[in-house]
Design goal:
The chain is an alpha/beta fold. The protein contains 13 helices and eight strands. Helix 1 links the parallel strand 1 and strand 2. The chain starts with 14 loop residues before the first strand and ends with a helix. The structure holds thymidine-5'-phosphate. The site of thymidine-5'-phosphate has 11 residues, from helix 9.
Length: 344
C-alpha cells in the first residue's frame, strides 16, 4: 500500500479528481504535479473514478466525505486503503467543498463503495487491454460477429483473446453436456455464475496482459435468460444482481445485438442446428425485453441485428473504436510514466 505523506508526493501519472479550475489552481499552488480531471459536469467521485480509468490512469480520490458524517468518511477510507488506494483527508482544508455537490447523487454508502471498488480494482487490474462483450438472444449472429471482429482487430495489430460463456472450462463443459437438464432456473443461474467466476479471472488476466478480450455472452445472459420464466421458473433479477457484482466485472463495452425472435429462430433453423430448450419464441421475446431494459440500465450499445452482416459489423466497430482509443491512451500513459520513472 502506498502512503501519501504530503501533497507534493502527488506526481507523475497520478490523477487528482477535482471539481473545477479553482481546485486545479489550489493544487498547483500546493506544489502538486500531475494530470487533472475535472468533474464539474457532475456525477461525483464515482463517475470521476470511471473517467480516470477510461483515461487509463490510476487515481487518487480527494474528497471531503466527512461532511456527511465521520463514520461515512472512515468507512470509505478503510475501503479505499484496503485496495491500496490513497485516501487523503489533508486536502480538506484546501478543497473543503469538493464533495458537497455530490452528496445528493449518492444513494447509500454501500453503493458508492461497490462502485469505487470496482472502478479502482479495474484500474489496477485491467490496465493495458480491455474486455468487450457481445450479447443477444439466440440466432442474432453473436458468434459470427465475434469471429469477424477478432480478425479485424488482429489485422489492426491488437492481440485478441476470443472467449465465450458457457465456457470450455470444467463447469462450462458440464453445463453444455446437459448433465443439469431439468434443474430449476435458480440452480442454472448459480451454475452459469460458477462458470463465470473462473472465467472472469481468466479474462482479467488476459486483459491485464494487453489483450482485447472478445466475449460471446457474459453476466447479462444470466440476468436476461434466468429471469424470463423458462417453463414457468425464473429468478428475481434483484437476487441475481449482487451475484453478478460479486463474480463478474463491468466490461469496457457491452454490445447488444437486438432482433425479433421470429427472425432469429428462422436463422437458427436454417442453419440446421438443434433447437435448444431456450429457443422458444415466447420465452425469447421476454429475454429480448429484459435485455433491452438491461441495456438502458447498464449503458449497453444496442445494434439492430436484423440488418445485414456488414452493417452490423461496421456498427460494432464504431463502438469498439472508442475502447481501442482508450487502450492506446493507456499504453502511451504507461510509456510516459515508465520513461519519467527511468529519468527520476
Ligand atoms: P450459446 O448458444 O450462445 O452457446 O449459449 C447457450 C445457451 O445458454 C443460450 O441459449 C443461452 C443460455 N445461457 C443462459 O441461459 N444463461 C447464461 O448465463 C449463459 C451464459 C447462457
Amino acid at each position: 500500500m502506498k502512503a501519501l505523506d504530503s501533497l507534493s508526493a502527488l506526481k507523475g501519472t497520478y490523477v487528482v479528481l477535482v471539481e473545477g479550475s479553482k481546485d486545479i489552481a489550489a493544487l498547483t499552488s500546493s506544489g502538486v504535479v500531475g494530470d487533472f480531471i475535472c468533474v464539474q459536469s457532475g456525477g461525483g467521485p464515482v463517475r470521476a473514478a470511471e473517467a480516470a480509468w477510461k483515461a487509463g490512469k490510476p487515481a487518487v480520490i480527494l474528497t471531503d466525505w466527512d461532511r456527511r458524517g465521520n463514520q461515512l468518511a472512515e468507512d470509505l477510507r478503510i475501503n479505499l486503503m484496503s485496495l491500496g488506494v490513497v485516501y487523503n483527508t489533508r486536502i480538506r482544508e484546501t478543497l473543503s467543498y469538493l464533495c458537497a455537490p455530490y452528496a445528493k447523487d449518492v444513494e447509500s454508502l454501500d453503493s458508492v463503495i461497490i462502485h469505487l471498488q470496482r472502478s479502482l480494482l479495474d484500474m489496477r487490474g485491467v490496465v493495458m487491454g480491455a474486455i468487450i462483450v457481445v450479447e443477444g438472444i439466440d440466432g442474432t449472429g453473436k458468434s459470427t460477429l465475434c469471429a469477424r471482429l477478432a480478425r479485424e482487430l488482429e489485422s489492426e495489430g491488437f492481440e485478441v483473446y476470443p472467449t465465450a460463456e458457457p465456457t470450455r472450462g470444467k463447469v462450462g463443459r458440464l453445463i453444455r453436456s446437459g448433465a443439469f437438464e431439468g434443474v430449476s432456473q435458480s440452480t442454472e443461474a448459480l451454475l452459469f455464475m460458477a462458470d463465470r467466476n473462473d472465467h472472469t479471472e481468466e479474462m482479467l488476466w488476459s486483459a491485464s496482459e494487453g489483450k482485447v478480450v472478445l466475449c460471446d455472452r457474459y453476466f447479462a445472459s444470466t440476468l436476461a435468460y434466468q429471469s424470463s420464466g423458462l417453463d414457468g421458473s425464473s429468478v428475481d433479477p434483484g437476487v441475481l444482481m449482487p451475484l453478478c457484482e460479486a463474480f463478474a466485472r463491468v466490461p469496457d463495452l457491452t454490445i447488444l445485438l437486438d432482433a425479433d425472435p421470429e427472425t432469429t429462430m428462422g436463422r437458427v433453423r436454417s442453419r440446421g442446428e438443434d433447437v435448444s430448450k431456450f429457443e422458444d419464441a415466447g420465452f425469447l421475446r421476454r429475454v429480448r425485453e429484459r435485455y433491452l431494459l438491461l441495456a438502458q440500465e447498464h449503458g449497453f450499445k444496442v445494434i439492430d441485428a436484423s440488418a445485414g452482416p456488414d452493417e452490423v459489423f461496421e456498427a460494432a466497430m464504431r463502438e469498439i473504436r472508442e475502447v481501442l482509443r482508450c487502450i492506446l491512451l493507456r499504453r502511451s500513459t504507461r510509456r510516459r510514466a515508465l520513461s519519467s520513472k527511468g529519468r527520476g
